[in-house]
Amino acid sequence: MLIPVDFTWLEATMMAAVRITAFLMIAPPFSHGAIPARVKAMLGIGLALAIGTAVSPGYEPLDTAPFLGALVAQLVTGALLGFLVMAAFAAVQAAGNLLDVFGGFQLAQAFDPQSMVNGAQFTRLFQLTAVVLLFASDGYQLIIAGLARSFTAVPVDGMLDITGPAELMTDVVGQLLLAAVQIAGPLALVLFLADVGLGLVTRVAPALNAFALGFPLKILLTLGLAGAVFATLPGIVASLTGDALEWMGQVR
């Protein structure tokens, strides 16, 4: 029995699988440690098979050396796209870290081996909530759609211009810091003013020992105001998903 095999389609699909798998290893929510690496690899191959017919037209088979170079290029492209998505959602984690620092929870930090996050309560809570919201709101489907569109901008046999992504990554880091401050800035300012007020009370009436009351007061303020920030996370995650798609679309 003769089974015909289209080696052009197979080679193009393999290229696409390398880019998609590298993306899934880095980009949330697929990068979470609770998802085994074997499942990520199988998902990458499955998605590559789904778009194989779209990336194979116009593809010319390569020799050994150019083929290996193209595999490396696909690996770098997938890792870059995954980093852009990760940077977008790292703003939520950074905002939680700011709440831990200003709220006094930083002393209780621990390392989460599944999410690869080293932080205190709000850092891990915000990061896990962002992952859950991505699955619950179908935001992960938009991310996969953005990844599929990247094959139009950068074909499997095309080369990535590194100057554009380098400038884009610089802008993304700045946007990450700005977004973190916008999310947690108001609460951090309130906690800072609470410290200033306690300091003034201590100067006026040292016998009151206001700083002894400062710890439970700051915890109460943090828990109360963090609830308001937590309630806005669905809208924040939706906005960050749009930013991630926009950044992925700028990769050429």
Short description:
The protein has 252 residues and is mostly helical.
* Poorly predicted sequence stretches spanning 5 or more consecutive residues: none
| Radius of gyration, taken over Cα atoms and rounded to an integer in Å | 23 Å
Distance between the termini: 44 Å
Task: Bin the helical content.
Answer: over 70%
Structural class: mainly alpha
The largest beta-sheet arranges its strands as: 1-2
- The number of distinct β-strands equals 2
The overall average pLDDT, rounded, is 82
Count of discrete domains:
1
What are the secondary-structure elements, in order, as H or E? HHHEEHHHHH
Strand content: under 5%
Output the number of helix runs. 8
Task: Assign an overall shape.
Answer: elongated
- Report on the biggest sheet: 2 strands, antiparallel
What this model shows, in words?
It is a single chain. With 252 residues, the protein is mostly helical. It has a two-stranded antiparallel sheet with strand order 1-2. It starts with 6 loop residues before the first helix and ends with a helix. It is found in: Cell membrane. Belongs to the FliR/MopE/SpaR family.
Could you outline the blueprint of secondary structure elements for this entry?
Blueprint: H1 7-26, H2 37-55, H3 64-103, E1 110-112, E2 117-119, H4 121-136, H5 139-153, H6 163-204, H7 210-231, H8 233-249
Antiparallel strand pairs: 1-2
Helix pairs in contact: 1-2, 1-3, 3-4, 3-6, 3-8, 4-8, 5-8, 6-7
